[in-house]
Structure formats: structure tokens, C-alpha cells
């Protein structure tokens, strides 16, 4: 079935002029996208520079009004945008997936518009006074991922626009249609040059990181790619916000009522078919409830509908690309070879399509196995038994990454005390991965640096200026 929308028609080019983008579930061609070059990037930077002064001069109130109008338009076009996203990325329309993601785009855009950022008085003594004001930086480069391509792009561009910056967005080569569709709606309301999408290859992304035309680079992706951006940014000293990989641990404390946490635990692991930076990637469970947790997750894994995203009722989809499918399969095969117990799944779902992998729960596995030590980024959760909470905390902290983590218990106060000892940018209690547009989000260790969302997110895309008198 071919789904054609007015937005899709607006962003696709002729076959002879662009690159084919496949449906993640069926591998059929959805449309063709332009292949932008470094020269296209140069042209976009020039246009962004030319537009920035006037855009900044509009002031916060007018920019907020425009962003709220964009949020209205996103909601009005939710179904069209969700269908493009579902086909290209693979996530189903239903559940916490495509419709949810487009709705989140509207919510985060509104939050960027409505968050108040007043000058801060940091010193006052009689007539002496010092205030911190926040000005536009200039041109922001937004380099996004393929797992939540619309939502994460909005996290980058909406606060940047609100603060008076112009933006050039570079989507993943796997999901350019989704970002082009998002920008098509934004640009119905923005002056020319304020927001441009450059749909190019890695060479274009590499040039962005070192180009003197950028004042800020925002990047979401792998730790390895983040390191390259840091190295490249030394050439222009652009400010950086980096949201990099995560191998998020969860700890289920002794005596926890598993029936009360089972659903949240499942979605903490498997939202977006596990293709989420801050998904639960390794689960440490006390021996008193270990078997119950394993059985509960396995039962839900077997029952949760998986299939093509446009088919109503499915809530899990395929891996987005062949490379990620191969990583997931390799890690599960390695765990099996080490003697781990595959309780559910553990094999491709070839009957559904070439990139589907069955929702998988792996038990009787320990630290040192690749599935535990490496980020799987797919529909697989290793469940590790422990007997001592201090040991579980030590193992949770052993990773070089520190994006998110979670603690699960009937005793919330006890869970909070354990959470204080975990090295992560965010630690959730009896949930995992839930985000709020007013609550700061960012990683520690090799999961990156800088915060997004709310007041912290606005400050991250602004230049602080101290006025003393």
C-alpha cells in the first residue's frame, strides 16, 4: 500500500534527482530525497547568517507566537506526519510510537515558546547590581539521529529558534524524509533562511562540526561520532551539546511487587522496539523476585503485537536498518553461545519482514557478556541476578556511559537512596525513559554533556552576558 500525503509530495524529488528511501518494514521505496552537497551546506550557512539578525530582532514574544502557530500546525497535520514517520523509521502508529512522537513535537515546540527566561540578578548591594542576560548565539547546527528523528530534531531546533538563532538541521541518512516533513511544516511560518534542512551524507556532517559559520553544534548519536565532533569543533570553538549513547541500568530492589511495575518495566526496555538512547539496556534483579520478573517480561514479550507500523494494533516494529539488525542478532547469538538462557524471542521474525527481530528476554547472563556490556539498541533485554544491593550499584556504575538509569521498589524512599548512588544524568523511580519538556535532560561520563529542555535548554542555545553597574 502506498500512502501519499501533501507533505510527502512537497518534500520528495524525482527519482532521477534524488536518493531512494525505503519503508523500514517492507523495504519498498517511499520517495526520493535530495542529496545535498558541501556547497549546499555553504549556501545554507550564508542564508542563515543573512536571516539571523532580523529573526533575532523580532523579539521573544513574536518568536513565541510563531512557534505556537507551528505547534498548532503540527497537531493539525499529525496523521500525515505520523504516517511518513512510521513508514520511514518503522515505529507503529499506535502505542508510544509515531503518533506519540508527532504529538511530542508539538508539546516541546510549545514549551520552547512558553518557557520564561528572565534576566537573573546574581548580585545586589545598594546601587551595585549584576544581571545575567541571555542573547542569541547566531547559527546553530542540529545533527540528529534515526531513532526519534522528528522529536529529537524539535528538541534541537525549537529552543534555538526561540532564542533568536537560525538553524541548519542535518538528519540521519536513514530518516531524512521525517525531518524534511517536519521542516516543511515549520517553514510555513518562518522567514526564509531561518531553518534549512541539509539532507547530505557523513561528509556534510563532518564539515558542519568544524565550519566557522556555526556558533553551536547540537548532536544526538553514538559516543564514537560524538568524539569526532569534539575534535572537529576545536577548529571553530563552537559550543556543543552532545547526547550520546547509553547502556542504561535498572535495579529491581528486594521484595518488590512485580505486578505493580511489570508494564512500566516492559516499556522501559522496549519502547520504540528498544531503539532509544535512554531505554533500559541491562536489568539487575534481586534473587528474591528474579524468576517472577523474568517470567513477567517474557510473557509480555511474547504477547505484544509486532508488525508493520501502518497496520493498526501493532506496537512494536522492525529494526530501522540492516546494520542495527545485524548488531542485535550478533549480540543475542553471542549470549546464547555463552550459555545464557533465551526465555523469549532470540531469533529474527522473518515472517514479518527482513528487519524484524522477535522481542527477546535473556536470563542467566552476567557482566562480561557482550549483551550486557555493549549497547544493543534493539528489542532485547538481559536480566542479571544479584543478591547484594551494594554490588548491584557497583555493577550498574561500571559502564563508561551514564545517560539514564532506574530503580524499582515498593519503598520509594529506599529507591531514592539507591538512585543517589547511581552515576547517570537521570535516574527514574519505578519507570524508565519518561521525559518532561520542563525537566532538564542530559548525560554524564561518555554519554555526552550539556542539558536540554526547559530553562536549561534555552540557556544552552544562548550566550550569557553579564551586565554590571
TrEMBL record:
<feature type="active site">
    <location>
        <position position="243"/>
    </location>
</feature>
<dbReference type="InterPro" id="IPR016162">
    <property type="entry name" value="Ald_DH_N"/>
</dbReference>
<keyword id="KW-0560">Oxidoreductase</keyword>
<dbReference type="InterPro" id="IPR015590">
    <property type="entry name" value="Aldehyde_DH_dom"/>
</dbReference>
<dbReference type="InterPro" id="IPR016163">
    <property type="entry name" value="Ald_DH_C"/>
</dbReference>
<dbReference type="InterPro" id="IPR016160">
    <property type="entry name" value="Ald_DH_CS_CYS"/>
</dbReference>
<feature type="coiled-coil region">
    <location>
        <begin position="64"/>
        <end position="91"/>
    </location>
</feature>
<keyword id="KW-0175">Coiled coil</keyword>
<dbReference type="Pfam" id="PF00171">
    <property type="entry name" value="Aldedh"/>
</dbReference>
<dbReference type="InterPro" id="IPR044086">
    <property type="entry name" value="LUC3-like"/>
</dbReference>
<dbReference type="InterPro" id="IPR016161">
    <property type="entry name" value="Ald_DH/histidinol_DH"/>
</dbReference>
<comment type="similarity">
    <text>Belongs to the aldehyde dehydrogenase family.</text>
</comment>
<protein>
    <submittedName>
        <fullName>Aldehyde dehydrogenase family protein</fullName>
    </submittedName>
</protein>
<dbReference type="InterPro" id="IPR029510">
    <property type="entry name" value="Ald_DH_CS_GLU"/>
</dbReference>
<feature type="domain" description="Aldehyde dehydrogenase">
    <location>
        <begin position="23"/>
        <end position="466"/>
    </location>
</feature>
Amino acid at each position: 500500500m502506498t500512502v501519499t500525503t501533501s507533505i510527502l509530495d512537497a518534500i520528495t524529488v524525482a527519482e532521477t534527482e534524488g536518493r531512494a528511501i525505503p519503508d523500514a518494514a517492507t523495504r519498498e521505496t517511499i520517495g526520493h530525497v535530495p542529496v545535498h552537497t558541501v556547497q549546499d551546506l555553504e549556501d545554507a550557512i550564508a542564508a542563515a547568517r543573512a536571516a539571523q539578525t532580523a529573526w533575532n530582532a523580532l523579539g521573544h514574544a513574536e518568536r513565541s507566537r510563531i512557534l505556537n502557530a507551528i505547534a498548532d500546525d503540527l497537531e493539525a497535520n499529525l496523521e500525515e506526519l505520523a504516517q511518513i514517520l512510521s513508514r520511514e523509521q518503522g515505529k507503529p502508529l499506535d502505542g508510544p510510537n509515531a503518533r506519540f512522537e508527532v504529538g511530542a513535537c508539538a508539546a516541546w515546540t510549545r514549551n520552547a515558546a512558553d518557557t520564561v527566561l528572565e534576566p537573573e540578578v546574581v548580585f545586589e548591594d545598594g546601587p551595585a547590581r549584576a544581571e545575567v542576560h541571555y542573547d542569541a548565539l547566531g547559527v546553530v547546527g542540529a545533527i540528529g539521529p534515526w531513532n526519534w528523528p522528528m522529536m529529537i530534531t524539535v528538541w534541537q531546533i525549537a529552543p534555538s529558534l526561540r532564542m533568536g538563532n537560525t538553524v541548519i538541521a542535518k538528519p540521519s541518512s536513514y530518516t531524512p524524509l521525517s525531518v524534511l516533513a517536519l521542516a516543511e511544516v515549520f517553514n510555513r511560518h518562518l522567514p526564509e533562511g531561518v531553518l534549512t534542512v541539509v539532507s547530505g551524507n557523513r561528509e556534510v556532517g563532518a564539515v558542519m562540526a568544524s565550519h566557522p559559520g556555526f556558533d553551536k553544534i547540537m548532536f544526538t548519536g553514538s559516543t564514537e561520532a560524538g568524539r569526532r565532533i569534539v575534535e572537529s569543533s576545536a577548529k571553530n570553538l563552537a559550543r556543543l551539546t552532545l547526547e550520546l549513547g547509553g547502556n542504561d541500568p535498572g535495579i529491581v530492589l528486594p521484595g518488590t511487587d512485580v505486578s505493580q511495575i511489570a508494564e512500566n518495566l516492559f516499556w522501559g526496555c522496549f519502547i520504540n522496539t528498544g531503539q532509544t538512547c535512554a531505554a533500559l539496556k541491562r536489568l539487575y534483579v534481586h534473587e528474591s523476585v528474579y524468576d517472577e520478573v523474568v517470567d513477567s517480561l517474557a510473557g509480555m514479550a511474547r504477547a505484544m503485537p509486532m508488525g508493520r507500523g501502518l497496520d493498526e494494533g501493532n506496537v512494536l516494529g522492525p529494526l530501522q536498518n540492516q546494520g542495527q539488525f545485524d548488531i542485535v542478532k550478533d549480540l543475542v547469538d553471542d549470549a546464547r553461545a555463552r550459555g545464557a538462557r533465551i526465555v523469549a524471542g532470540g531469533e529474527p521474525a522473518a515472517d514479518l519482514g527482513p528487519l524484524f527481530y522477535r522481542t527477546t528476554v535473556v536470563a542467566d547472563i552476567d557482566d562480561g557478556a557482550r549483551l550486557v556490556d555493549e549497547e544493543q539498541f534493539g528489542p532485547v533485554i538481559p536480566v542479571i541476578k544479584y543478591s547484594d544491593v551494594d554490588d548491584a550499584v557497583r555493577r550498574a556504575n561500571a559502564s563508561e556511559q551514564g545517560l539514564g538509569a532506574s530503580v524499582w521498589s515498593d519503598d520509594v524512599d529506599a529507591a531514592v537512596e539507591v538512585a543517589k548512588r547511581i552515576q547517570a544524568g537521570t535516574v527514574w523511580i519505578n519507570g524508565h525513559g519518561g521525559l518532561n519538556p520542563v525537566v532538564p535532560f542530559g548525560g554524564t561520563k561518555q554519554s555526552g554533556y550539556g542539558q536540554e529542555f526547559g530553562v536549561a535548554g534555552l540557556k544552552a542555545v544562548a550566550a550569557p552576558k553579564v551586565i554590571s553597574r
